[in-house]
């Protein structure tokens, strides 16, 4: 038997980037390609701590199809070994697959004569904006550092809804330092998008037609779903509290509002209170993920008497096995519209209540509400707060909307079909893996 092709996969060190790249890695390994997954030490330690138990015996063949998890130093302090990443590249690597925000890794691979592929883990609707950046600067809509000089609607194609300047990935958070970092990332993504032969995306051709036609080098291979292999790491940075699965199983079908805002959203204490009061007022059972850091205080403070008022119908955990929440009890998903959450909700046929926070999440909301019509927007009031009354009203509107429910089920079918044998994403993925094996 010939030697296995060996690929190196390098994610950006954040939860929403590591998880989809790890899922992709497990799929590649399932096809008999050796995969080494490179995390920073900080992320590696977190993932190892949440890994399933290693003690049970497994088939030898399965052992061979595991993804090798390795780490490199994260900071470049004086005593750090700067050669570790390069040493990994010196092994006989067939291809380096990296997050497009890490364009430098792809450049190093190119210089070393190693094939490169990018894997984009975020939403694709905003991708056409990146090649458009020079035009935006030239026409005076923004300056060289991405700061908006003129608010207007941006048209990139007649088939894609215009973008508002307030929705640009690097312009939708009120912090100049983060804006600058995001704009630098946008420039790197633009470069990678324009120069990659392979630009894999966690999306579905049928759901993203205009973007796929406009950017023909992108290769939709989604939805990337969690492996059900008991020993595969989910890539979760935090321990997943499974008590909510049992709790969900006890709830009536289509009754639970699932409330989760991913790994980075931060609410003011005032907004957090209003959300709690909204869930109380709405009267539906809810499962709410309140991870440490969800509010801008050291710990989340609930309104007085909240626990007593929602006792029996409200379940709160710090981190759930979100991908396993496919239960029929879930009626809708109140989400920040992170792309992984979006793909997971679509794959489970769940209607969305959209509350974006940052980056691509505003474009993802637009896909959910305007293009696919599987969700509703939660709107801020004049004080930039989503009020308890808005929350109650939108939950009621969403749960009584039969068109949205029907669309969600249609989308679920499209998503599931695309990764079945012969489906569009499956074919794309197999084309890529066969290429790796040549
Ligand atoms: N997630 C999870 N448990 C939770 C909440 C979220 O496992 O309680 C996972 C979720 O399934 C998704 C990821 O965390 O895969 C969040 O990624 P997303 O792109 O939605 O948002 P981000 O964290 O990047 O903002």
TrEMBL record:
InterPro entries: Glyco_transf_N (IPR058980), UDP_glucos_trans (IPR002213). Residues 54-78 are annotated as: Disordered. Keywords: Flavonoid biosynthesis, Transferase. GO terms for biological process: flavonoid biosynthetic process. It holds the Pfam family Glyco_transf_N. GO terms for molecular function: quercetin 3-O-glucosyltransferase activity; quercetin 7-O-glucosyltransferase activity. Residues 6-41 form the Glycosyltransferase N-terminal domain. The keyword Lyase does not apply. It comes from the Eukaryota. The keyword Iron-sulfur does not apply. Belongs to the UDP-glycosyltransferase family. This is Glycosyltransferase N-terminal domain-containing protein. The lineage of its organism: Eukaryota, Viridiplantae, Streptophyta, Embryophyta, Tracheophyta.
């Amino acid at each position: 038997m010939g030697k296995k092709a060996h690929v190196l996969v390098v994610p950006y060190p954040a939860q929403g980037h590591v998880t989809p790249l790890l899922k992709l890695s497990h799929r590649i390994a399932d096809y008999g390609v050796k995969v080494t997954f490179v995390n920073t030490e900080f992320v590696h330690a977190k993932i190892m701590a949440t890994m399933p138990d290693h003690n049970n015996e497994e088939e030898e063949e399965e052992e061979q199809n595991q993804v090798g998890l390795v780490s490199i130093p994260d900071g470049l302090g004086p005593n750090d070994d700067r050669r570790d990443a390069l040493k990994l590249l010196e092994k006989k690597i067939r291809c380096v697959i990296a997050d497009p925000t890490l364009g430098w890794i792809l450049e190093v691979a190119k210089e070393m004569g190693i094939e490169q592929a990018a894997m984009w883990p975020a939403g694709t609707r905003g991708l056409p904006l990146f090649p458009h950046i020079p035009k935006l600067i030239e026409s005076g809509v923004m300056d060289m550092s991405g700061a908006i000089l003129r608010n207007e609607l941006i048209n990139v194609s007649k088939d894609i809804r215009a973008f508002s300047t307030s929705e640009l990935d690097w312009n939708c958070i009120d912090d100049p330092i983060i804006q600058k970092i995001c704009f630098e990332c946008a420039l790197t993504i633009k470069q990678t998008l324009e120069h990659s032969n392979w630009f894999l995306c966690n999306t579905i051709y049928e759901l993203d037609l205009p973007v796929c036609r406009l950017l023909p080098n992108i290769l939709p291979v989604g939805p990337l779903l969690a492996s059900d292999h008991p020993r595969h790491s989910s890539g979760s940075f935090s321990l997943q509290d499974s008590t909510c699965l049992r709790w969900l199983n006890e709830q009536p079908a289509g009754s639970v509002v699932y409330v989760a805002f991913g790994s980075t959203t931060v609410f003011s204490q005032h907004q957090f209170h209003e959300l709690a009061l909204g869930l109380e007022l709405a009267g539906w059972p809810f499962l709410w993920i309140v991870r440490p850091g969800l509010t801008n205080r050291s710990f989340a403070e609930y309104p007085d008497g909240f626990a007593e008022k929602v006792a029996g119908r409200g379940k709160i955990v710090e981190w759930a096995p979100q991908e396993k929440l496919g239960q029929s009890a879930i009626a809708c998903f109140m989400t920040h519209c992170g792309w992984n959450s979006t793909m997971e909700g679509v794959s489970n046929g769940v209607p969305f209540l959209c509350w974006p926070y940052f980056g691509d999440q505003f474009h993802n909301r637009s896909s959910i509400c305007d293009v696919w019509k599987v969700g509703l927007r939660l709107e801020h009031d004049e004080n930039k707060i989503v009020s308890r009354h808005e929350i109650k009203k939108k939950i009621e509107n969403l749960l009584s909307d039969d068109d949205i429910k029907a669309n969600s089920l249609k989308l679920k079918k499209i998503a599931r079909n695309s990764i079945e044998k012969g489906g569009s994403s499956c074919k794309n993925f197999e084309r890529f893996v066969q290429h790796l094996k040549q």
